[in-house]
């Protein structure tokens, strides 16, 4: 659709293995299954989504720049482990005008102390966390409402 708002959904390290281990924390859906649900909801809302996963911090930074140059209206970002460490991703959020919504399957605040600090959340427009795969759909609704 020519005028459909474009939303990037970027996923960080190890999320390609989702559904294989720790289902009690992350659920049993694979990333492909979650992506399918995001695509269905986006298409029902007349939006277009670009869903990607990388284990490489620099690739995620490049994709955030690409989202801006492609005219994306929002980015949903599950930076996974980089959430708690990445100044580069924090800076990338600040460096682009596209609103970034931080997404997590689990609730990092209810877990180990090292997960309580989010360098992404300190720069993001908002955060959706703790609802499993539903976190992505809630974040998509928020992005579409912006
Ligand atoms: O809850 C989330 O979405 C997280 O971003 C997931 C990250 C974690 O480091 C964050 O604190 C919270 C970890 C993703 C690891 O993915 C796995 C995939 C398969 C099996 C186990 C973990």
What does this structure look like?
With about 150 residues, this protein is an alpha/beta fold. It has one domain (about 5-145): Dehydroquinase, class II (Rossmann fold). It is about 35% helix and about 20% strand. It is built from five helices and five strands, in the order βααβαβαββα. The chain has helices spanning about 25, 30-45, 55-70, 85-95, 135-145, and strands at about 5-10, 50-55, 75-80, 100-105, 125-130. Strands 2-1-3-4-5 form a five-stranded parallel beta sheet, with helices on both faces. Strand 3 (about 75-80), helix 4 and strand 4 (about 100-105) form a beta-alpha-beta unit. It is globular, with a radius of gyration of 14 Å. The two termini are about 20 Å apart. About 35% of the residues are buried. The model has no long low-confidence stretch (mean pLDDT about 95). The structure holds ligand CA2.
């Amino acid at each position: 659709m020519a005028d459909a708002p474009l939303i990037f959904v970027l996923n960080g390290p190890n999320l390609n293995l989702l559904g294989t281990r720790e289902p009690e924390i992350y659920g049993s859906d694979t990333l492909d299954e979650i992506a399918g649900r995001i695509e269905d909801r986006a298409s029902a809302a007349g939006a277009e989504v670009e869903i990607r996963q990388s284990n490489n911090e620099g690739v995620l930074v490049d994709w955030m720049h690409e989202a801006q140059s492609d005219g994306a209206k929002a980015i949903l970002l599950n930076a996974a482990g980089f959430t708690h460490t990445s100044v580069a991703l924090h800076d990338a959020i600040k460096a682009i005008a596209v609103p970034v919504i931080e997404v997590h399957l689990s609730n990092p605040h209810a877990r180990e102390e090292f997960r309580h600090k989010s360098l992404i959340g300190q720069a993001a427009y908002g955060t959706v966390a703790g609802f499993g795969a539903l976190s992505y759909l809630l974040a998509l609704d928020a992005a579409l409402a912006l």
